[in-house]
Amino acid sequence: MQPARDHRAGPIPAAVGIGLRPPHIEHVLERRPAVPFFELHSENLFCEGGPMWDVFARVRRDYPVSLHGVGLSLGSVDALDPAHLRRLREVIVRTAPALVSEHVCWGAVGGRHFNDLLPLPYTEEALAVMVEHVDQLQQALQRQVLLENVSSYIHYTHSSMPEWEFLAALARRSGCGLLLDVNNVYVNSINHGIDAVRYLDSIDPATVGEIHLAGFTRKEGLGGPLLIDTHDHRVDPAVWRLYAHAIERLGPRPTLIEWDQDLPPFEVLEDEARIATEHLHVRATEPV
């Protein structure tokens, strides 16, 4: 058995990690696979103790960890939930994760929560709300937070700027970093007819702290194909090509393989991570 290592103070490398889900926990604890880092959902640690914290403590000794939140609803016109913010701060203090991230979206209003990460209108008003809430979040946590672009299936006719300009302005005005989900960029490019390469080329490399990759489901709608960000397939070849372009432009970044439904054997996720790692190594070894 390998000796326990405490990774709490270490940064996440520019390597490929895996989102750790409950069906794979036993495998990870028993086999200790050579994965550079794992990501867990922040809200799963909001309990005071119990089995999840026991598992987390064991994983944390051997791997760097990032925490990814889904419940803050940063884009809602409602004030941030103080209880949620307090629990998140307590988890961050207790775990000292290498990265902390949330989403550029809303998911609650008037005390009612929706089971989705809903897109924002890309307007100055929505941007002002996001900046205010991100400022409040980063002040509460006393650290920079990465914000992820979300997939969407509707768009607002009164949006006054493209999504990439909204993200750039958010990072510039709030000081947050960006978690660039390349799969979501591709999904939105098909669903809304935007140029995915132009999207990536408009992102300031200095703002990108992490990249996500996942699989989608293709449906046929009345107006053509509709892509659903289901996280239950391998990464699509078109997304791999877009990821290669992202790495070429941004340079190597910590990258995460996400898979949340119909989970395959852990070895499938390791194979996805291997493919992403090959892209990173090609970029890292290219002559300057």
Automatic annotation (TrEMBL):
<dbReference type="InterPro" id="IPR007801">
    <property type="entry name" value="MbnB/TglH/ChrH"/>
</dbReference>
<dbReference type="Pfam" id="PF05114">
    <property type="entry name" value="MbnB_TglH_ChrH"/>
</dbReference>
<protein>
    <recommendedName>
        <fullName>UPF0276 protein ACFPPA_18230</fullName>
    </recommendedName>
</protein>
<dbReference type="InterPro" id="IPR036237">
    <property type="entry name" value="Xyl_isomerase-like_sf"/>
</dbReference>
<comment type="similarity">
    <text>Belongs to the UPF0276 family.</text>
</comment>
